[in-house]
Every structure is written in structure tokens, then in C-alpha cells.
Design a protein that fits this description.
Structural class: alpha/beta
Number of domains: 1
Shape: globular
Largest sheet: 8 strands, mixed
CATH class: Alpha Beta
Number of helices: 11
CATH architecture: 3-Layer(aba) Sandwich
CATH topology: Rossmann fold
Order of helices and strands: EHEHHEEHEHEHEHHEHHH
Strand order of the largest sheet: 3-4-2-5-1-6-7-8
CATH superfamily: P-loop containing nucleotide triphosphate hydrolases
Strand content: 15-25%
Distance between the termini: 55 Å
Bound molecules: adenosine-5'-triphosphate, magnesium ion
Radius of gyration: 18 Å
Length: 256
């Protein structure tokens, strides 16, 4: 039986797709069999983030409408052989996919995989409910920005009406210099305010923009290991600003 985990957020663009893709890739490197399901129906892009968009033959709508079996719709990643992508409905973006049908598709795959990571659209609209209803666990992604925190709080309160086995928090795009200057809340403070256990801390990094899968940084590995269980380790975003060179870097950032 797989763990079905939805990556969700209130605010858009906080990193759900990037995190689901990278954490999924790292779990697969640990030998886990992983499905990444793009449940962001309409604005789907996990296939593009993972560079498999040209390999898609079937998608979610094809499975739901019986044109193929769920296993047939999975695209095996060329670099990460244990990672499989289930694309959202490319063939018919306007097609309605019910929460029940998404859940059925994922339940059918459950026996053959260790993890099914579900990439959810932002907000608490229909697409959110469809993705969340198919999951047993949730990861709420936020950035330290106030607007993202306020929206995360809304999502967390809606998640309470679902019987999730666990709901955890990832704080993404944390800038070490702003943390040191006290301009943003720390991930630990955010976890206390939102009353969710912290799963991972990810730095804001230009590498993520360049190529999500080329950045094999510790932060994603910690996130994947923490999700898999065991003692949690958190990436220290202030590390680049330690020592003499670090302090110079910090001074330059502050324009001292
Ligand atoms: N830690 C990070 N540092 C720098 N850029 C990042 C980081 N995480 C994500 N990004 C970038 O931010 C943008 C939004 O990320 P992403 O698409 O993963 O967010 P999302 O929550 O899935 O958005 P949406 O709500 O639109 O689905 C992307 O360009 C991505 O490369
Ligand atoms: Mg996304």
C-alpha cells in the first residue's frame, strides 16, 4: 500500500510542484517506487518541471474515461527509473474529473507503489478538494511571507474537515540573510503559529530556477528523508552567512 500525500498551499507559486517533483525524485533514489500525480487539472505543469512532457501518451482523463488502464498512463522518468508521472488531463483540459474518479485511479495504483505524491492546485476551490480527497496525508507548503502564511492558515482549517493521518508543514524560499536580520519569521516560529509540525525548510535558491533536478542540495534530501520517517534534520539556511566570508557576504547583501 502506498502513502498518498497531497502537496497543498493557500497561495499560488509557493513551490508545491517544485517540491513534490524534487522530493519524489529523491525518494525514488532511495529505492522507493514513486508516482507523481499532477492533480493541478487545467494548469498542470509537473511533466514540464520533470522534462517528460513529450513522453506523455495517456493522461488522467484517459484513465478516468477508460481509454487506458492507470498503469499504462504512467510515464517512467528517464533519469529516475523508480519515478513515474501521471499527467493531468492534457488531452481535454476542460474535462470534469470528479473527486471519486481521481481517488479510484490512485487507489488502483496504491498496491504497486510506496508513495503517491499528489500535486494540488493553490487555494481551496474544487481542484483542492479533488486532490485532498484522494490523499491520506497532507503537506502544506508556505513561504515566510505574510500573505502566504495567512492563506496557509485557511488551507489548514479546511484540511481539518478531512480525516488526514498527518498534516505537516514545509517552509520554502527561506532567505538566510533575512532570517539573520529578523525581517522574516523563522520556520520554527511559523510552525508554532500555524500549529503544524515542521517537515522541511528549503532555501530560496537560484538553482531551483535553473533546473529543478540538477540541484541535488542537502535541503531536498533532508526533506525526502524527513518524509520517509526517522529523526528529522532541517537545512540551515543561515549557513552561507557563517564565518568571515559569510559575514562579508551578508554585509554586501545589506549594502554595508
Ligand atoms: N526554493 C526556491 N527558490 C527559488 N525559486 C523557487 C523555489 N521553489 C520554487 N521556486 C520557483 O518558484 C516558482 C513557483 O514554483 P512552483 O511552480 O513549484 O509553485 P507552485 O506552488 O506549484 O505554483 P502554483 O500554485 O502555480 O501551482 C517556479 O518558478 C519555481 O522554480
Ligand atoms: Mg504547481
Amino acid at each position: 500500500m502506498s502513502r498518498k500525500i497531497v502537496f497543498t498551499s493557500g497561495k499560488g507559486g509557493v513551490g508545491k510542484t517544485t517540491l513534490a517533483a524534487n522530493i519524489g525524485a529523491r525518494l525514488s533514489l532511495k529505492g522507493e517506487q514513486v508516482v507523481l500525480c499532477d492533480a493541478d487539472v487545467g494548469l498542470n505543469n509537473i511533466d514540464v518541471v520533470l522534462g517528460v512532457e513529450k513522453r506523455i501518451t495517456y493522461d488522467l482523463a484517459d484513465v478516468v474515461e477508460g481509454r487506458c488502464r492507470s498503469r499504462q498512463a504512467l510515464v517512467q522518468h528517464p533519469v529516475f527509473p523508480n519515478l513515474y508521472i501521471l499527467a493531468s488531463n492534457h488531452s481535454a483540459p476542460d474535462k470534469y474529473i470528479s473527486p471519486q474518479s481521481l481517488k479510484l485511479v490512485l487507489d488502483n495504483l496504491s498496491a504497486q507503489f510506496d508513495y503517491i505524491l499528489i500535486d494540488c492546485p493553490a487555494g481551496i476551490e474544487e481542484g483542492f478538494h479533488r486532490a485532498v480527497a484522494a490523499a491520506d496525508e497532507a503537506v502544506v507548503v508556505t513561504t515566510p511571507h505574510l500573505s502566504a502564511l495567512r492563506d496557509a492558515d485557511k488551507v489548514i482549517s479546511v484540511l481539518k474537515s478531512y480525516r488526514m493521518q498527518s498534516v505537516q508543514l514545509i517552509v520554502n524560499m527561506v532567505r538566510g540573510d533575512l532570517l539573520l536580520s529578523g525581517d522574516i519569521l523563522s520556520p520554527q516560529e511559523i510552525s508554532q503559529i500555524l500549529k503544524l509540525p515542521l517537515l522541511a525548510v528549503l532555501p530560496e535558491s537560484d538553482d531551483v530556477y535553473k533546473n529543478t533536478l540538477s540541484d541535488r542540495g542537502k535541503a531536498f534530501t533532508f526533506a525526502a528523508n524527513n518524509l520517509a520517517g526517522g529523526k528529522k534534520k532541517f537545512y540551515d539556511v543561515t549557513k552561507p552567512y557563517n564565518g568571515l566570508l559569510g559575514r562579508i557576504k551578508l554585509g554586501l547583501k545589506r549594502g554595508v
